[in-house]
């Protein structure tokens, strides 16, 4: 994180607790799962998202109002500024879903999940239901697995000829397992 970007890091009040918005740990975690060790500075069509133009660490039209045009090259500074602003906006939406104050790591992993699947999906998830009952470990587990042990949030789905078709994606399963382990390891 650059010195100019550190100034963008703020706080969000979540169920009465003050948590770091866009924490350095979260931003590093997103970089690990969204683009590997380095950001992707050229806008590409994300195959897992149906060709959605994507850049940096998962920026799309769903999280920023900045135009994202396939083939366009972004600077590191532009990636950092846009990501920090988009993550903070997403976290502001996510904050209203918590009825109990999470610790920072639960907050960060809920934020990673919401960055990947959308805040509405995270808010409506079994993980959030458990966290709101104070069942922190169960909530962390539910990021990756249902109570019966089945993998969740590890599929891409689309509708073809009126039928919903879902495909298992090992990379999503790996990310969910990392989120769950990181979340639960902090309890």
Task: Report on the architecture of this protein.
The protein is of the alpha+beta class and 187 residues long. It has 8 helices and 6 strands. Strands 1-2 form a two-stranded antiparallel sheet. A two-stranded antiparallel sheet has the order 3-4. A two-stranded antiparallel ribbon has the order 5-6. Strand 1 and strand 2 form a beta hairpin. The N terminus is likely disordered.
Q: Briefly, what is this?
A:
The protein has 187 residues and is an alpha+beta fold. The chain has helices at residues 3-6, 24-34, 76-95, 104-117, 119-123, 126-132, 136-142, 170-185, and strands spanning 10-14, 17-21, 40-46, 52-56, 155-160, 163-168.
Descriptive tags:
alpha+beta, 187 residues, two-stranded antiparallel ribbon, globular, 18% strand, single chain
**Which radius of gyration do the C-alpha atoms yield?**
16 Å
Strand content: 15-25%
Helix/sheet category: alpha+beta
* Helicity range: 40-55%
Shape: globular
What kind of sheet is the major sheet? Answer: 2 strands, antiparallel
**What is the residue-mean pLDDT, rounded to a whole number?**
91
Q: Runs with pLDDT <50, length 5+?
A: 1-8
Oligomeric state, counting identical vs distinct chains:
single chain
Overall strand count: 6
Distance between the termini: 26 Å
